[in-house]
DNA sequence: GCTTACTTTGTAACTAGTTACTGAAACTAG
DNA sequence: CTAGTTTCAGTAACTAGTTACAAAGTAAGC
């Protein structure tokens, strides 16, 4: 096992002091000749500076901590890509932790991030870490909370969120425009974002003369509960003599499960039931699923910038969702491809 | 901005030396009474030890570096989840970098990982970093290369890969079993994994009396090139009087694009053309796409273990792919759901 | 030629921890 | 009651860097 060269080895090799080497590396006042000798020694010894030691002196590391609830969602994926983009542009790295929706992990991983003295922390969870994140903010670590309502962001933290009420409104207007009236909702629970989306949906539907009763909203915490939730909505519609003609899913995480539950029952989309869900994803085009898209990449970019730029006061950013109309609500507009996929030219080459 | 408590502050508060605090924190010989006083001081001052300083002394940090070529692939996602699992179980964190398939980023990010003195490095790329990873291995940092052939793994590195020849063979046998004979391949280029998959496919097809000519394999580096590649395969089949009846995609990254190119031309799957591709994904069930699955989560787990357990010699692990038969090749077997999605019970509640 | 000013470099103290060594109690044994 | 051993805590040196300050060297001005 070969020992790594230290700044002292470089100094000895170049015949200067460690202070001079440090100055060459970080751009202090040095002679051209000295700098050349030092750089030659750096190359000869394959010296790689120790970022940990630098971090000790600077009081913080150069990495951006990101704690994600659920790495499997395309929303979070694009978010991370945005953060990583900013990190790479600032000689920084993303330190990633996935909580798998477990509170104990979340606490442990945010703590580890704190121990690592991350230059900033971006959290998409923040359910059990308010105390710690508040303290980190006090200690000068910019903390950004994502996808939680502005209203309940912990003090001292920046907040990046979606206009969830608007997301619900877009769904309502679109479904009504497609002639649907008996609407059921699959929601993932008590998170503020979920509540706001449902509230926005309900208010807009009411404005359109389509009330959304409490029991038309079913909660499914996990994918396993989706099937039962869909059943309950179907039964409810049948019992009232208003057969369900639309299902709204308020979280991208459950899109696959809701879609599977529908098709497993032989339900045609949009023939029997219209379907709208949250968050755009690569396969949505192929499946013709209409979605409410979040600008996730841009949100990641902004989150990264808040960490790097360290604005003085807490910043609150609310992004606006957009409706991507495909065919799952029976609309007759042109198809909208998932951004990033290639253009699909018409070809005369059908065999 | 509140200054963080240091070990010195804790020592002063508890009326002991820093050495004693360190012993309490790391489990040395101390009196019960002293330990209590120290822990009280830790709680009172909300002391969070500085992992950077610890890392300086230990010679390395406690984080696992992961450099990913393309974060959008579900394969890499599951891989990261596996690594993160091991990391979390070892009070470690994953330091993630996405290269976006750009070599300059890869070099910069592996370098940054080295500077961060990661306790181990897991790379899925390794195209331009052989020199550095070799040196890191010499310096005692376990380096794992994933998804590259064992044959060309850089010296000193562990290697985790898939039996790509077997993956190709599985595709060949399955397509032949479904009665397909005019097969076209969309490959993503010159990576060893791609070459091996194609070679395995070709050899197995030849054994079945179905030669795969060179020009039946089209390379598409990016999603934008897929459409043209599919066109070329269709033209080739038409010109020879052997209309294409199957398309193989040797990389999961291009699955969406190939599927989109097919459907955009009005081609029915499997009616007109059968379709097999690499890597299972959540929507594959809904779309009925037959795939060759890699045990990506297990591969991540193993990669993490190699970093944590630091075996002496270089380890080479080859995982076996499995065929997940759905409907895209015209097979008449039962549907196989994507693991992790809920069971889909038959329901009498179709409206 | 001497003073002043500026540039360049080295010394030593600093970051926040860990640990080898040392000495003082406390406990056990004869 | 003393000697030997063990336990516990402190001092100081160490990790790999950065930087304040001082010293030395060089150039310009008088």
UniProtKB/TrEMBL annotation, chains A, B:
Query: Which residue intervals define the domain HTH lacI-type in the entry?
Result: 5-58
List, alphabetically, the SUPFAM superfamilies matched. lambda repressor-like DNA-binding domains, Periplasmic binding protein-like I
Keyword Repressor recorded: yes
Identification of the protein by name: Substrate-binding domain-containing protein
Under the heading Pfam families, the entry gives: LacI, Peripla_BP_1
Q: Which UniProt keywords apply?
A: DNA-binding, Repressor, Transcription, Transcription regulation
* Residue stretches in coiled coil: none
Q: Enumerate the transmembrane spans.
A: none
InterPro entries assigned: HTH_LacI, Lambda_DNA-bd_dom_sf, Peripla_BP/Lac1_sug-bd_dom, Peripla_BP_I
Keyword DNA-binding listed:
yes
Top-level lineage group = Bacteria
């Amino acid at each position: 096992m070969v020992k790594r060269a230290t700044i002292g080895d470089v100094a000895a090799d170049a015949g200067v002091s460690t202070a001079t080497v440090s100055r060459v590396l970080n751009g202090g006042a040095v002679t051209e000749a000295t700098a050349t000798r030092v750089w030659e020694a750096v190359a000869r010894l394959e010296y790689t500076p120790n970022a940990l030691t630098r971090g000790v002196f600077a009081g913080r590391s150069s990495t951006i901590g990101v704690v994600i609830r659920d790495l499997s969602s395309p929303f979070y994926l694009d978010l991370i890509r945005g953060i990583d983009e900013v990190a790479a542009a600032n000689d920084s790295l993303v330190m990633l932790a996935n909580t798998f929706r477990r509170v104990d992990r979340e606490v442990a991983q945010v703590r580890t991030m704190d121990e690592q003295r991350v230059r900033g922390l971006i959290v998409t969870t923040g359910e059990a870490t308010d105390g710690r994140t508040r303290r980190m903010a006090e200690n000068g670590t910019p903390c950004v909370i994502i996808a939680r309502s502005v209203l309940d962001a912990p003090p001292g933290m920046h907040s990046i969120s979606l206009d969830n009420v608007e997301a619900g409104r877009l769904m309502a207007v679109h479904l009504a425009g497609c002639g649907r009236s008996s609407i059921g909702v699959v929601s993932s629970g008590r998170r503020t974002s979920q509540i706001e989306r449902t509230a926005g949906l309900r208010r807009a539907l009411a404005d359109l003369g389509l009330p959304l009763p409490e029991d038309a909203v079913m909660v499914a915490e996990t994918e396993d509960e989706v099937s039962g939730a869909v059943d309950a909505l179907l039964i409810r519609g049948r019992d009232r003599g208003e057969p369900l003609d639309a299902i709204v899913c308020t979280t991208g995480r459950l899109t696959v499960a809701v879609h599977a539950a529908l098709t497993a029952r032989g339900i045609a989309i949009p023939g029997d039931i219209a379907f709208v869900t949250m968050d755009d994803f690569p396969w949505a085009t192929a499946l013709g699923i209409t979605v409410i898209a979040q600008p996730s990449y841009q949100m990641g970019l902004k989150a990264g910038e808040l960490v790097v730029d360290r604005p003085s006061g807490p910043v609150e950013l609310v992004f606006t969702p957009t409706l991507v109309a495909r065919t799952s609500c029976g609309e007759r507009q042109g198809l909208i491809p998932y951004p990033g996929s290639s253009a699909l030219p018409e070809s005369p080459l059908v065999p």
